[in-house]
């Protein structure tokens, strides 16, 4: 971590401004060599004051040719993103000009950064913890205003502070145990007070609540999976295109046009969804169609909500509904009965039997955009009706959830041990396990494999 790294920090392509970031002990020297405040007879600037914006030019040291007009921002560590010396160069955003400037920087002793290395240095230097580092990626990848809100809260250290508070309570309890283990003759036998027992209950309850928050709101990062299913040629692809307001799926009058599932992201009222159009489910001897139908069924079983499509004037039985919608979805209200093509006068509308009267029904015309707003609202209401997002300040990710589950498991062993008057050494082992599990969330006890896994998912330059 003693070397100097550099990278283009903005996406490749043409634009107004492109940013190149340098971090490390040579950052100021490299910038001084390449930057000139004047374009006539450019020469390096020996004095760069921290946290000031300089207007000038980046030039090629050997030929003195100007490469670009830039703004240069030097930031002396530890008052920088990485807590090292950092220089950011704001140039015109073009692939060639940014690459040329970066090549000059690399030629002066810097190396190209690895994915996420700037944020990793910020973590290793103690400027941020691991939850804040993950929040940086969540902010970049936020799909909705809600997911951005939770990521920003986590980036400010909200989740870190909560976890540190829980660890401190457990460390206090562990200290009581350690005294009895190390000095058994000098203290009374271990007998935790109701207040100290309450510490374990408080931590256990909070960990369980964080796990629930993940289960309830992880869709803000991943999207709620909605699958459109039904027989061939009932308008599944037309509905997909209408929901997306673009021609994503191919629509023809020929049954079986859609073979492979087609996925696309959709934002409804600030909630992210992943909509999937699938092959029509029916009896067939066509091998390709059979494969498409199996894929459709697989997507349906992995989705959070199924839109079962049917059209008027066709024979319909509960068996057809049951072939498409899994049993658990029928009972838990994870399906919507969508009747399409109501603009056509083709007979009576299909009806579900008394057994399935609890399944919500929406009548639409995907072609004429009739009932689509009602369908979207019904989708949102079903998916988030049980959630109270205003009470949640953070949404733990899957890594956090697994660590919390490990902590809960250890704390339950502690409670059992206390009830059965287990040895202090046994209780201390379980308390330490729970402390370590919570420490992996903030990075205090995280392994190198965990760190590599997290930061390798970042883009280069962040």
Structural class: alpha/beta
Mean pLDDT across all amino acids:
83
Top CATH class of the largest domain? Alpha Beta
- Strand order, biggest sheet? 3-4-5-6-2-1-7
Question: If helices are DSSP runs of H or I spanning 4 or more residues, what is the number of helices?
Answer: 16
Outline: flat
Oligomerization state of this entry?
A: single chain
Query: For the CA atoms, what is the radius of gyration?
Result: 29 Å
Strand content: 15-25%
Note the main sheet.
Answer: 7 strands, mixed
Judging by the overall fold, what is the CATH architecture of the largest domain?
A: 3-Layer(aba) Sandwich
Task: Give the end-to-end Cα distance, rounded to a whole number of Å.
Answer: 16 Å
CATH superfamily of the largest domain: P-loop containing nucleotide triphosphate hydrolases
Q: Name the helix and strand elements from N-terminus to C-terminus, one letter apiece.
A: EEHEEEEHEHHHHHHEHEEHEHHEEHHHH
CATH topology of the largest domain: Rossmann fold
């Amino acid at each position: 971590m003693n070397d100097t790294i550099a990278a283009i920090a903005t996406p490749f392509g043409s634009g107004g401004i492109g940013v190149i970031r340098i971090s490390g002990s040579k950052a100021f020297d490299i910038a001084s060599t390449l930057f000139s405040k004047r374009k006539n007879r450019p020469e390096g600037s020996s004095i760069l004051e921290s946290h000031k914006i300089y207007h000038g030019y980046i030039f090629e040291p050997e030929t003195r040719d100007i490469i670009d007009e830039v703004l240069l921002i030097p930031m002396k560590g530890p008052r920088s993103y990485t807590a090292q010396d950092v220089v950011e160069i704001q140039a015109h955003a073009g692939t060639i000009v940014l690459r040329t400037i970066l090549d000059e920087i690399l030629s002066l002793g810097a190396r190209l950064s690895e994915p996420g290395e700037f944020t990793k240095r910020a973590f290793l230097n103690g400027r941020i913890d691991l939850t804040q580092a993950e929040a940086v990626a969540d902010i970049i990848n936020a799909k909705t205003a809600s997911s951005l809100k939770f990521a920003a809260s986590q980036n400010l250290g909200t989740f870190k502070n909560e976890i540190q508070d829980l660890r401190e309570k457990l460390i206090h309890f562990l200290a009581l145990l350690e005294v009895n283990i190390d000095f058994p003759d000098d203290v009374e036998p271990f007998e935790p007070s109701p207040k100290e027992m309450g510490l374990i209950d408080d931590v256990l309850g909070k960990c369980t609540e964080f796990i629930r928050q993940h289960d309830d709101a992880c869709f803000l990062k991943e999207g709620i999976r909605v699958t459109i299913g039904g027989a061939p040629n009932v308008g599944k692809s037309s509905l997909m295109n209408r929901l997306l307001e673009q021609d994503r799926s191919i629509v023809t009058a020929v049954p079986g046009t859609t073979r492979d599932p087609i996925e696309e992201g959709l934002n409804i009222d600030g909630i992210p969804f992943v909509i999937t159009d699938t092959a029509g489910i029916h009896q067939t001897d066509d091998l390709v169609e059979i494969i498409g139908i199996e894929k459709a069924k697989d997507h349906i079983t992995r989705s959070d909500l199924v839109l079962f499509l049917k059209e008027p004037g066709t024979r319909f039985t509960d068996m057809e509904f049951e072939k498409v919608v899994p049993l658990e979805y029928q009972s838990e209200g994870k399906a919507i009965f969508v009747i399409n093509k109501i603009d056509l006068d083709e007979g009576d509308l299909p009806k579900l039997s008394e057994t399935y009267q609890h399944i919500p029904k929406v009548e639409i015309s995907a072609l004429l955009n009739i009932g689509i707003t009602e369908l979207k609202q019904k989708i949102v209401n079903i998916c988030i009706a049980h959630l109270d997002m205003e009470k949640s300040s953070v949404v733990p990710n899957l890594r956090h959830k697994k660590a919390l589950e490990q902590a809960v498991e250890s704390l339950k062993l502690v409670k059992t041990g206390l009830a059965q008057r287990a040895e202090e050494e046994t209780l201390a082992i379980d308390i330490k396990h729970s402390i370590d599990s919570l420490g992996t969330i903030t990075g205090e006890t995280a392994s190198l494999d965990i760190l590599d896994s997290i930061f390798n998912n970042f883009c280069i330059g962040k």
